[in-house]
Amino acid sequence: MPHYEKSEDLPIWQLSREVAMKIYQLTKTGKFARDLGLKSQIQRAAVSVVSNIAEGFERRSDKEFIHFLNIAKASAGEVRAQLYLALDLEYIAQDQQTELNESLANLAAQIAGFMRYLQSKNRTPKSDQPLAISH
Description:
CATH topology: de novo design (two linked rop proteins)
Number of domains: 1
Order of helices and strands: EHHHHHE
Number of helices: 5
Number of strands: 2
CATH architecture: Up-down Bundle
């Protein structure tokens, strides 16, 4: 059983970080870079995913962690919706939108699975003990 001592060790955190970086790269050039409203919104939503996973992990109770994972999952959906708008506005190509939306759908599914796992186990709040999570 793997032991996760920090949020950065979680596969869902790592994937959310990768997606956030891709969003930042995508929004720094071309028409997207000039649409400050959509650019800011999609960047904030992408950052929300990775940030809420980290914040929930630090809460050290399943109930609170699940709450923050739910927010992270919802933010992933928000990014997907904004990518459709970016495609419609011709800020990004179809292949870029498809690739990122597939990554986000995969991430949302992994977050949902992790939430189910946390709901099914009976972990009590811990002080400084590493979080033990099996996949």
